[in-house]
Amino acid sequence: CETCSKEEAKYRCPRCMKYSCSLLCVKKHKLALSCNGVRDKTAFVSVNEFTDLHLLSDYRFLEDVGRTADAAARHCIVHSPATKRLLYCLRNKARGCNIELKTLPVGFTKRRENSTTFNSMENKFYWHLKLIFPHCCAEYTLKGVPDDKTLADILKPYIDPVESDPVVCQRLKIYTASPQSDVRILMKIENRNRNSVRYNELDASRSLLDNLKGKVIIEYPTLFVVLKTLKNDMVVLGE
C-alpha cells in the first residue's frame, strides 16, 4: 500500500495508479493528492502501450461527447419561445425591406455564428458579414455592420492602400496594388442547382441594404471580393 506502507495492496486508483490496501487508505490518498478516483479518458497513451481496450475506450468517449453535444442542442433554452420570436421578428423585418432571410436549424455552424440584430429605435439592421478574398485565400468576419454603410466603406480597412491595416494590407497586397475599378463584389445566388452556381455583382457605391434588396440570404451575407484581371470560376448571372 502506497499510503500506509504496511498492508498488502488490494486496489489501484484508476486516476493516479496509486496502490491501496483498504477503503480508509483510498480515502486518505484522495484527500492527500486531491484525486477524484475517476479514470482520465484523455490521458496520453504511447503507441507501444495502445491496446484494443484503449481503442474501445476512445470510441465510447467520443460517443459520450456526441450525446452531450446533442443534448445541449436540444436544451429548452435554445428552443425557447423568446428565441423563436427573435428569429421571427428578424425575418419579418427583412421581408419588409424586400430581403428573404432564411434561418437554419439549431446546430448548424452558420446558425451559431450569426450575430445579426435589428435595432427598432433606429429601424436599422446590424449585419453579421463575411468577406472572402479568394485570390489570397483570406476570410474576415465582421459583426454589427450597419445596413446604411456602403460596400466601398466596408472594404476600406481591407483593400485601401492608405486606410487599411498594415498586416491586412500585406496579406491582401494583390488587391491593394490593383486599381479600385478592377475590384468586383459578388454574392452567391441561393436556391440554385449545384451545376449552375451563379453570383450577383453588387454595387460598391451603394449601401449594404440596397445591395441586399430582392435577394435570398441564408443566415447572413457572404461577399466574395474578386479582381477582373485575375481568372476565377465565379460566373455572374447573365454572363
TrEMBL record:
UniProt name for this protein = Box C/D snoRNA protein 1
Domain spans labelled HIT-type: 1-35
Any idea what job this protein has?
Required for box C/D snoRNAs accumulation involved in snoRNA processing, snoRNA transport to the nucleolus and ribosome biogenesis.
In the UniProt record, the signal sequence range is none
Q: Origin organism of this chain?
A: Phainopepla nitens (Phainopepla)
On whether Transmembrane is a keyword of this UniProt record, the answer is no
Please give the family membership noted in the entry. Answer: Belongs to the BCD1 family.
Write the lineage as a comma-separated list: Eukaryota, Metazoa, Chordata, Craniata, Vertebrata
Q: Which Pfam families match?
A: BCD1, zf-HIT
Q: Which GO terms describe its biological process?
A: box C/D snoRNP assembly; maturation of LSU-rRNA from tricistronic rRNA transcript (SSU-rRNA, 5.8S rRNA, LSU-rRNA); snoRNA localization
Write the record's keywords in alphabetical order, separated by commas.
Isopeptide bond, Metal-binding, Phosphoprotein, Ribosome biogenesis, Ubl conjugation, Zinc, Zinc-finger
Q: Does the keyword Disulfide bond apply?
A: no
Q: Name one GO molecular function term.
A: zinc ion binding
